[in-house]
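Forum: Protein Structure Q&A
Topic: Joint prediction for protein chains with partners

I've read a bunch of threads here and the consensus seems to be that you should model interacting components together rather than docking separate models afterwards. I'd like to see that in practice. Below is the full input, 868 residues plus whatever partners are listed. Could one of the regulars post the assembled result?
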Amino acid sequence: MAKLPKKDELMNYKYEVPPSDWMDTAVDIRPGTYCYGAKGKNLEAVNFPNARDWSPVDEDWHLPDNWQEIFLNGMAERLDKYRSFRLFMDVCVRCGACADKCHFYMGSGDPKNMPVLRGELLRSVYRRYFTTSGKLLGRIAGARDLTEDVLKELWFYFYQCTECRRCSVFCPYGIDQAEITIMGRELFNLLGLNTDWISGPVANCYMKGNHVGLEPQTILSNIEFMMDDLEDITGKRIEPRFNKKGAEILFVAPSGDLFADPGIYTCMGYLMLFEQLGLDYTMSTYASEGGNFGFFTSNEMAKRLNAKIYAEAKRLGVKWILGGECGHMWRVVNQYMDTWNGPADFLEVPVSPITGTKFENARSTKMVHIAEFTADLIYHNKLKLDPSRNDHLRITFHDSCNTSRGMGIMEEPRYIIKNVCNNFFEMPEETIREKTLCCGSGSGLNAGENMEVRLRGGFPRANAVKYVQDKHGVNVLANICAIDRAAMPSLMDYWVPGVQVMGVHELVGNALIMDGEKERTLNLRGEPLPGKGGEDDV
Amino acid sequence: MKIWSSLLAVIALVFIAWVGAGVLHLSTFFGIVLPYLALIIFLAGFLLRVIKWGKSPVPFCIPTTCGQQESLPWIKPNKIENPTTTWGVIWRMILEITLFRSLFRNTATEKHDGNLAIGSAKWLWFGSLLFHWSMLVIIIRHLRFFTEPVPVLIQGLEFMDSFLQIGIPLLYMTDVFIVLALSYLFLRRVAIPKVKYISQAADYFPLLLLLGVAISGILMRYFFRVDVVGVKELAMGLVTFRPVFSAEIGPIFYIHLTLVSCLFAYFPWSKLMHAGGIFMSPTRNLANNSRMVRHVNPWNYAVKTHTYDEYEEEFRDKMKKVGLPLEGEG
Ligand code: HEM
Ligand code: SF4
Ligand code: SF4
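Posted by a regular:
Agreed with the consensus. Here's the joint model:
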């Protein structure tokens, strides 16, 4: 990981523009601002073209000879396949309403991080090759040739967009730069220009079932460790079930929750809940990933990775699917999965076996979000909860971009938090719900080498957290996203030290009173619970 | 450069019209041929563009959700900003098209040392709304030239637009509004560095052209009076496809008409097509119901996946060792 830049260096920017026109301002790909290039072997693993080892800072990107043709043909194909793409290339009026809505612009002041200009980087190429005025008039019509420098600039700024859709909320035509970025990244992938941090997980997920590359026995032993800890904490031994045929429910979580701190605490929360409910569920080592880095690569790759979920549900003969806390996973489940790999007619409309609630909103995909599931349990008084166990926590909630702007799950997690905790504080209105500010690390940008960009992109969010920290003494940032859990801790440590990052189901796990449990003196992190006799109270 | 070339282009158009109609008396070309031509280009172009968009399918259901989803019965969904029904979508679109709902959300970000402040910013919304509504009223008012007798609705609109009862001829409020709004939209492009930075000639030109149209119209109505009866006869002739000139009309009229014709002809090939595009935007005109009803992608195709059998084949021994159930025995 690159050395962390100093705060005053990072904050040394203004919302100003350079003296030269943006078309004449060269891109500066410097350490800290880009992700390493993909390794050839990872691209080969999923049969991608032009696979090779490659680095963005190399002068020569070793592009295939006909790279322009590949790029432009790819563009033509996608213009014909996606109305969104064609429309968004045509109708922007450059009103600038989206300009200061992007967290990367807010945190860097670089005008090419304004969504409108990020879009223009590609629109200028579109005009040059796909519109009459651009072909005839060239630059005065806002058109420019697709040169190697232009390609590099496009690449750089399209891997500085987290596909968060915030710009789309404010655009009068709903122009969604995420959609344009998705198309752009598809085109880069035709040329082998993926990043290491995305292509590695994609290859892992394809071959091993999950991004982090956990093999079946490792998944089991990771869970074993967690269950050991839980036994110490609750006095109860939980035996999660894997690859079990005939279970009622297949549970799919983002693999980050099976792997590392603090996701594992969220995972403990899920499993405690299931145990207490006596749920007939199974997890799968094959469909061991709800997230989808394929989505940051190409549509086709995303579909190939996503296919495992329905395939496994079918093989195991479950009735419906329950999904864990993850942001982009849920954008994909909500807006893509059924279209790609459905219809899921071998499954049943999900019904909560505890409350009898039929999840009509998931009647076609047959997949329910765990926050919907748990909120329903709490509403029907099916859980015994002791929110005072979370009393030392002062919590705020970060809406993930994907679940807020590509789904709209906003009240469910808040309802849960308010029932399992006593101290909940909202961040300013302009920074939550559909206007939520991105963590700055989504869409496969949560690598280590691009830390400067992540810190900048995460700054607006962190700044809103700081506001509630100063005002209400907030010390927990709750969320329903595995990328947040992976990426936010370093952001918080940098910008707002003293704020921990927790999945909502970690809070649930802490508050949940399980039958036959011993008196809790530790929270899920193994830390003493204040006021519960674990350690002296201060 | 972008500003000057746009300004120059508009001035050139004015000059051409003035020389052509005022000096060379080519009234047939500027009064009949050009308007017809422009209208044909406009209609055909608009249609072509919309068809072209329409031909690209919408493979995925990708509304931008701006409110609570519909999930559990006791959680109140936002039926308009996150619609699940066609009615919800229709309401959402009506708000977008008539009130510019999304633009109304606009905020401005400021940086004070180490902190960001996000404040309200409604001027763009207001100026834009003022321009578009004035434009609409003006277009509808113009229909009085093309109808005989003039429908009561148009008369009513005229009456309301001039209810201040100032001056002779009566001052239309929308004439003032449109010039103010367009000037604001132009000035913000020039004065706000960030907006200037993203602006293209294709942004200045339509604003200046529209300003040209509005100003020439105002000059004609309030200052260089033209023979309105003659204009009405020409207009009626154009819509009945029997165009005639019954009276000499001043050159200012031809300047106005030429600029309008250019606006029409330019429209389909420019960003002005947002007027059609806004209706077709998939992030706004789809219901967020893709978990309830399967959205079908017309070009969905089968892809190569890594199947469970391949997975088990690879990990069988390891799976066996930890007691995971297996399909095949190896
Ligand atoms: C369905 C009808 C229409 C809708 C909903 C609509 C909506 C909008 C919105 C929301 C904006 C962005 C705000 C702004 O920059 O002012 C805009 C810009 C603009 N519209 Fe429209 N519009 C429509 C029709 C038209 C028509 C018929 C014209 C002119 C002939 C027009 C001319 C313009 C211009 C010139 C701009 C850019 C203003 C600038 O450059 O700052 N619009 N429109
Ligand atoms: S808000 Fe929309 S129309 Fe305005 S500049 Fe941004 S993308 Fe273009
Ligand atoms: S999608 Fe998000 S990251 Fe990308 S340009 Fe828009 S606001 Fe910025």
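Residues 32 and 243 of chain B are 7 Å apart (CA to CA).
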